[in-house]
Design a protein that fits this description.
The structure is a single chain. The protein is of the alpha+beta class. Helix content is 25%, strand content 30%. Strand 4 and strand 5 form a beta hairpin. The protein is globular and about 40 Å long.
Length: 115
């Protein structure tokens, strides 16, 4: 399955440091990792949050990556707003396992600057 993840500048640097193969561990105040199911939703988050957030460097990036479908079967799809606001809720403690099920590389498909 193709998924998307909006990220800021610092998170993108950590993804790059992994060789674009893994998402970094969550911070203590971030108990859930939220990959989203469609590009439109990822763009909305990057534009509305990352480009306005100093911790994101006022920059938003949309990443795209593929995850083994059978791995995602254990996580229900969460709809958190409009019908296309769909995401998976991956507990922070399961992120390493999630990363092991990424197929290929994480790619940046869109960059936005809030300044």
């Amino acid at each position: 399955m193709i998924l998307y993840r909006p990220v800021g500048e610092q998170e993108l640097a950590l993804i790059a440091a992994s060789g674009y193969t893994a998402f970094p561990p969550r911070l203590p105040e971030q108990p859930i990792f939220y990959p989203v199911r469609n590009e439109q939703y990822a763009i909305e988050i990057a534009e509305k949050w990352n480009t306005k957030d100093k911790f994101s460097g006022f920059k938003g990036y949309v990443t795209r990556f593929e995850v083994d479908d059978s791995f995602l079967d254990m996580y229900p799809v969460q709809t958190v707003g409009r019908s296309y606001h769909q995401e998976y809720w991956i507990p922070a403690g399961e992120l390493d396992e999630f990363n092991r099920h990424i197929l290929g590389k994480i790619e940046v498909i869109k960059a936005m600057d809030g300044r």
